[in-house]
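User: My instructor asked us to take a sequence, write out its structure as tokens, and then describe one feature of it. I'm not sure where to start. Here is the sequence I was given:
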Amino acid sequence: MKTFTHLKGYAQKLKKDICVLYLSYKDSRTPLFAKIVAICVVAYAFSPIDLIPDFIPILGYLDDLILVPLGISLALKLIPDRIIKENRKIAEHTKKNGKPKNWFVGILFIMIWILFAVWIGNLLLGLFS
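Assistant: Let's start with the prediction itself. The structure tokens for your sequence are:
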């Protein structure tokens, strides 16, 4: 249980870096590949819909506890340290009113779940026909 608490604390620390990633992917000095990774991580983190819904036992929290922190960690490693340091200072001085929502990514995940449900429905109909 102590490992779970440690992992959760680590994930919360990395989530604070979302603002830093947001500022970094807008920075013209950030390399293109790092921008692409940062954009994907920020878009997913700001999405109102998770790829794995939280109501699914255990699996629902995998993205919050593992996928998002790993993406943040990877993106931060790809961005040069001087850019990260500058954007950390900016992020500390900037007060945000909650996290923005990325409805495009949310709609994308809803469409994925609808397609998945249709696919499962077709499989079930084929079994019972």
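For the description part of your assignment, you could build on this observation: The CA atoms of residues 51 and 113 lie 8 Å apart. Try explaining in your own words what that tells you about the chain.
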